[in-house]
Recover the amino acids of this structure.
């Protein structure tokens, strides 16, 4: 084996349930030290420190502050943008740097303390955390929402993902009730996995019936108990090293987990631009590339963790790679983002650490996937207790081309997908539609009348003709 072959040799996870808890910097340090100790590597010897973007607090120098606390002087440093795929991109960069001989060891860490932020906010207190950035930098997304999305208030994932869900439901000819029950059957086993996971945020197993009827709507047809739980205090870290360094450190062979192959690709950044609103063009290409690089197939996977922020993310993945959502291996090793926890951009570090621990214990192969933005960005990574394959890189294996989006529109259109936004009191506030236009292309529209919101939740609106009026910026739909 090439002595530069990268392997994952250290893992750590933390979940803080008592609030207020530590700030992200303290959590980074905790998991960094624990993962390095697991790897038998003194933290001051880390060659690379990479951190996943934290929503909780903007530090003046995130990597620099962590390096200072660890007593390390890494020659490679990185701080990611906002994305559920960010951990994969950092891990891939770490593995590539090690394989190229640029460095011998790398830490990838992430932490969120959003539950603690909420606790301070509810107490009417300011967050007393260290080293704030001055001035506060812009939010770390790679691309802001499309102007037409902003004009219609469509930027929260709980609404964009719900729109794709209704489009898929209609395309399959499922009723509203069938979709909800099918979703509950898919997600109930995930709650059982979370109940057995000591790091999970919600550790209560739920029945299908409880998931169908047990909570309020947030972005219809999604209920609060079936979407990612964002306000958590969680942290995770992994340490990668060259085989040469792992040998010098005395890391046992059974503790080493190998990235056999990974791939990245993109659907359109705007949901309305998707040629098929409820399906992904990118996922099958990304999965195919990752498995080809790994020299393995889906049937070879002993464990699977699909990114699960919303049900449509699971369903699009299963549709694309031919996976039965109820098959014996399950869809998650952690319990998924709605139950194990959805710490902003950081979840894939938790699923990777959990997968690595599982492969250490039982050997074999595992698939971990990531999703970024509005089901736009996709990463598939194949991990194994056995070396082999070829890494791959962050160059997209596929980039989808979208249909045009029209801003202001007046006239008849056909509903392609929709949602109804609900407030914290459970009441319906407004509807948001994506519509097909007679001359081609798509547009957005809001629904304001309460009787129409009730109607939209009682029957299938996809495929219905609606009338749009506009003020030149936003469109309003009636029928």
């Amino acid at each position: 084996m090439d002595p530069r072959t990268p392997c994952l040799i250290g893992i750590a996870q933390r979940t803080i349930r008592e609030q207020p808890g530590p700030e992200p910097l303290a959590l980074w340090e905790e998991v960094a030290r624990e993962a390095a100790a697991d790897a038998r590597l003194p933290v001051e010897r880390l060659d690379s420190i990479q951190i996943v973007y934290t929503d909780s607090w903007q530090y003046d120098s995130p990597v620099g502050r962590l390096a200072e606390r660890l007593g390390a002087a890494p020659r490679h440093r990185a701080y990611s943008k906002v994305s559920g795929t960010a951990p994969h991109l950092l891990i891939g960069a770490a593995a590539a740097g090690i394989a190229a001989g640029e460095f011998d060891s790398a830490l990838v860490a992430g932490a969120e303390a959003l539950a603690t932020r909420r606790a301070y906010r509810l107490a009417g207190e300011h967050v007393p955390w260290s080293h704030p950035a001055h001035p506060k930098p812009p939010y770390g997304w790679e691309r802001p929402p499309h102007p037409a999305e902003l004009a219609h208030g469509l930027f929260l994932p709980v609404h964009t993902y719900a729109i794709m869900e209704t489009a898929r439901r209609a395309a399959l000819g499922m009723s509203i009730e069938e979709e909800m029950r099918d979703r509950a059957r898919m997600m109930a086993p995930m709650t059982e996995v979370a109940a057995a996971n000591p790091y999970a945020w919600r550790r209560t197993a739920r029945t299908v019936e409880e998931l169908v009827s047990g909570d309020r709507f947030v972005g219809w047809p999604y209920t609060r108990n079936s979407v990612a739980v964002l306000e958590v205090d969680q942290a995770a870290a992994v340490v990668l090293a060259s085989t040469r360094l792992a040998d010098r450190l005395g890391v046992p062979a059974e503790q080493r987990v190998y990235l056999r192959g990974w791939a990245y690709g993109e659907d359109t950044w705007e949901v309305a631009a998707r040629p098929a609103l409820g399906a992904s063009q990118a996922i099958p290409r990304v999965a195919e590339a990752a498995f080809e690089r790994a020299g393995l197939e889906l049937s070879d996977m002993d464990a699977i963790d699909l990114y699960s922020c919303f049900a449509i993310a699971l369903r699009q993945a299963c549709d694309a790679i031919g996976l039965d959502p109820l098959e014996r291996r399950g869809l998650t090793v952690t319990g998924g983002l709605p139950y194990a926890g959805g710490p902003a951009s950081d979840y894939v570090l938790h699923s990777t650490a959990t997968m690595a621990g599982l492969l250490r214990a039982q050997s074999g192969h595992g698939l971990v996937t990531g999703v970024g933005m509005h089901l736009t960005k996709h990463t598939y990574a194949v991990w194994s207790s056995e070396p082999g394959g070829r890494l791959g890189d962050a160059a997209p294996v596929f980039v989808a081309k979208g249909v045009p989006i029209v801003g202001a529109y007046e006239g008849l259109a056909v509903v392609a997908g929709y949602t109804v936004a609900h407030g914290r009191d459970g009441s319906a506030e407004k509807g948001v539609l994506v519509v097909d236009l007679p001359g081609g292309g798509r547009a957005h529209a809001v629904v304001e009348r309460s009787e129409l919101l009730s109607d939209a939740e009682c029957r299938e609106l996809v495929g219905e003709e609606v009338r749009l009026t506009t003020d030149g910026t936003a469109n309003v739909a009636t029928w």
